[in-house]
Amino acid sequence: MKFSSLDLAPELQRALDACGYSQMTPIQEQAIVPARRGKDVLANAQTGTGKTAAFTVPILQQMHDRPATTLPGHVRTLILAPTRELAEQLTNTIKGYAQFLPFTVKGIYGGVSTDSQKGKLKAGVDILIATPGRLLEHVVQCNISLSKVEFVVLDEADRMLDMGFISDVHKLIQQTSAKHQTLMFSATVTPTVNELAKKLMTRHEIIRAAKQNATADTVEHVVYPVEERRKPDLFVELIKKHNWFQVLVFTSTKAQADELVVDLKMDKITHVVCHGDKTQGSRKRALADFKAGKVQVMIATEVAARGLDIKGLEYVVNYNLPYLAEDYVHRIGRTGRAGAKGHAISFVSREEERALDDIERLIGSPIKRIYQKGYEVGSRDNIRKQLSQKAHKPRTNKASQTKIIRNKVSETKAKGKTRQKQKQLKK
After folding, report:
1. Contact criterion met (CB below 8 Å) for 163 and 307
2. Do β-strands 219-225 and 342-348 pair in parallel, antiparallel, or remain unpaired?
3. For residue 398, what pLDDT is reported?
């Protein structure tokens, strides 16, 4: 189905043409029409499937159909995102969709001075993309009012729950008009996401553009079993052997990221780092250099798993598996986007086997193992067999154990008496 069949405003259709959008993705086909009619929507779709257009296009069309003056210090559309990376990405993308429409699009998030954002907000904003914490600061300081909000979007709702932002989200939505339309988009659907939808929406429509919690069909998944201490060597060997370029590597902690940096420096592999200790400016520069192909590897923690849109990214490496299985879906969603092929490569130590089991259950399929020569680890099946044998080893009953102990005590006493007799004879 083509966008041209939706009978959109000429300015909006022109912008979509300029962005190279012609054919709709499954999530766009299913979500745009009910959202355009004003229905609340909970949409489940994997990353890289066109979710941003799925909620932005119907909102822009409705704003065009119902012109209204945006008052100073007020907002018409509020879009909440869990991370500043995602908020920045959404701001740039939505500006492209609205480029020929008379709407202002602004983004506010942490890492930037609040003073520099006050002026933008007090002038009034048609479409505001924000992280919950930073927006709440501005609301408390009376820099912005949400009382005129007509549309609310929660992007990556599951991530907002995981990161503990839901209290801030509730506080913000309580400030909005009671008659607003709510759209929730989530890459994974959990009971808590469904519960949140019930609280925030009225008779909402549920849309599933793909199998629940699925990963893109265009992504090939493989696992390399490896000892934790050998992961740096394996990574360097694979990157050189296969001539990988533009590799996004995820570690679970900032310390792991910094340790990998040391190894890459020794092997003279160009790289950048993106984690919570870096300033917003340095993270933006790191991403820009990586996108431009100036460096070969970008090392990131979970903070970068959402919102990164790197065109043509082929390789995502899980240097360490995520603590939550759902985060695996978000990490590898950086590759295989918009129909392109991608590779999700995971290094798994023996300690991470249980996390791997959780991931395979979540995505509904086993992941292919590749055993790299020189990096062999003990077979998990053998380990399980040993543990099982130990667990099922026959145990002596209590009476038998008592008898054994008594016999040992008697033997010890007898030996003691023998030693005493030997001493007396010597004397």
Report:
1. no
2. parallel
3. 46
Q: Taking Cα atoms as reference points, which of 100, 93, 96, 200 lies closest to residue 151?
A: 200
Is 295 in contact with 270 (CB distance < 8 Å)? yes
3-state SS class at 46: coil
Inter-residue contact 295 to 268 (CB < 8 Å): no
CATH topology of domain 3-208: Rossmann fold (3.40.50)
Please, which pLDDT band fits residue 112 given cuts at 50, 70 and 90? confident
Q: CA 192 to CA 171: how far, in whole Å?
A: 18
Tell me the two tokens of residue 43. Answer: 């949409």
The CATH architecture that domain 219-378 belongs to is 3-Layer(aba) Sandwich (3.40)
Task: Name residue 107's beta-bridge partners.
Answer: 129
Helix (H) or strand (E) holding 368: strand 368-369
Segments of the chain assigned to CATH 3.40.50.300: 3-208, 219-378
> Mind listing the pLDDT tens digit for each residue in 173-223?
999 988 899 999 987 777 888 888 899 998 899 998 755 555 667 788 999
Angstrom distance (rounded) from CA 110 to CA 91: 14
C-alpha distances (whole Å) from 40 to each of 210, 305, 389 are 19, 27, 55
